[in-house]
Predict the structure.
Amino acid sequence: MPTIVVPVILCGGAGSRLWPVSRQLLPKQFLPLVTGRSLLQDTALRAQEAAGGVAASSPIVICNEAHRFLVNDQLAEIGVVAKVLLEPAGRGTAAAVAAAALSAVSAGATGDPVLLVLASDHAIHGADAFKRAVAHAAGVAASGMLATFGIAATRPDSGFGYIERGEQLPGDKGAFKVARFVEKPSEEQARAMIATGRVYWNSGMFAFGARRVLEELGRFRPDILDAARAAVAAATDDLGFLRLGREAFLACPAEAIDRAVMERTSHAAVIPADFAWSDVGSWAALWELAEKDAAGNASRGDVQLQDTRDSLVFGDRRLIATLGVDELIIVDTDDALLVADRSRSQDVREVVEDLKRAKRPEHLSHRRVYRPWGYYESVDSGERFQVKRLMVKPGQALSLQLHRKRAEHWVVVSGRARVTRGEDTLYLEENQSTFIPVGTRHRLENAGDKPLLIIEVQSGSYLGEDDIERFEDRYGRN
C-alpha cells in the first residue's frame, strides 16, 4: 500500500522584517516577492506536485482567522482545494502541527499518513530535487522516524538554527540520525560547526507520520497535545473553514515543534537537501535570491541606478533614482519608505515594533486593505472627511450596516451597483451616485459580472473602521 502524503502548510507568519511591503494584515506569504505568484501559492503548487509523486492527499492549511479569505482566494486562483484550519491566535508550530495531525487522522485515513510540513513563506528552486527529497523523506517517515530537511550551510549565518548529523540510518546512505540541534549560534560557533562538515541549516520543513508525531507530543508535551485535541474536538464549520475551538486553543502553550518534539526525540532524522532554499526572512535574503545587474544590484519597478553597488531597490509607484551609494536597502510603498544598510536588514522588525508602540497604522496595513468582498484604499483624508476607492468583486457584497458618526456619498466609477439604503433598493450605473445619511442602514453589492469600482466620500465627527454596526454579513463577521 503506497504511503499517503498530506501536505501541511503553516501560514501564520508575520514577516515583519520585510516591512514596509509585508504588514500584519498582508504578511509576506501573500505577496509575490520571488515569482509572479505569492509565496503561499508557490508553496501550495510545489507541495502538490511533490506529494503527487508519492500518493497525495489534499493539503491542510493552517492560518490566522484574519487571513482566511486571503488564503481562500489565493488557493482558488491556482486551482488548489485545501482544508483550511483557523487559529484564533498564534500558538507556535507545535500546536499547529498537532491540530493538523489530529485532523489528518480523523479524516479516516488508514495506516499512518505522512505529514509534509512546510512553511508558506519559503522559496525553493529545483522542483525535481525537491520532489526526490520529499519521496525520500516520506519513506524515512513511514519507517517511524521524524525527518527534517537539512540545507547545506554555505556561510556562518547566526540567524539560522543548525542540525548536526549523527550516524547514517541503516540501509539508507542519504539519511542520518540527528546528533543535536543548535538554535542560532554565534557567528564564531557557526563557523566552527560548518568546518566539521556535519552540520546543516534547519529548514523548518518536516515529514513524519501523523500518529507518530502525536505519540511523541504525548510523551514530551502532553499539555500541548491535550489543548490541541480539545480545540479540534470543539471545532466548528465556518463558511467551509474549520474554526478551531477558541478557548481550548488559546489555552495551548506556545512552542515550536522543533523544541517540543524534534530536539527531544531519539527518532529524529535529517535528510540533506540538494535543492536551493531560502526562508525569505529579510530584505538581504531577498537580495541574495534576486537576479542582479553587473554592479550587484537587484531592483524592481521604475529605477535609475547610477554609481550604485550591491543594493536592493524595490518600488512600484514612482521613479526611484540612486547616486553614489553601496549596500543599501531601499523599499518604497504608498505610505512608507525604508532606507537601510543591507547589513541591518534583520533589524527592520525593530522599526515595526517602534511603529506599534507609537500606535501608528503603517505596521498594520497598507493604504489598500483587502476584504472578502474585494478591497478599499485610502485616497485622501483630512479633518472630518476621508475619500476611499472601493472595489467589489462580481457577486460579492458588503455587510448590511450603519454608522453612528459618519455619512457616506458613493459614486460609481465603473460597473453596476445594487444599493440598499434604509427601506429603498437602488441600482446605480457608471457616473451615478447616492448619499447615505448618518444612522441609515445600507449595503453595497456588485450587481454585474465585472468588478464594481466606487469612490466613497465619508464625512463626520469620527471616521474609524470600528464605527460599523453590522446586521447581516455573508462572511460571518461581527
Summary: The chain has three domains: 5-278, 289-356, 368-472. The chain has a mean pLDDT of 93.
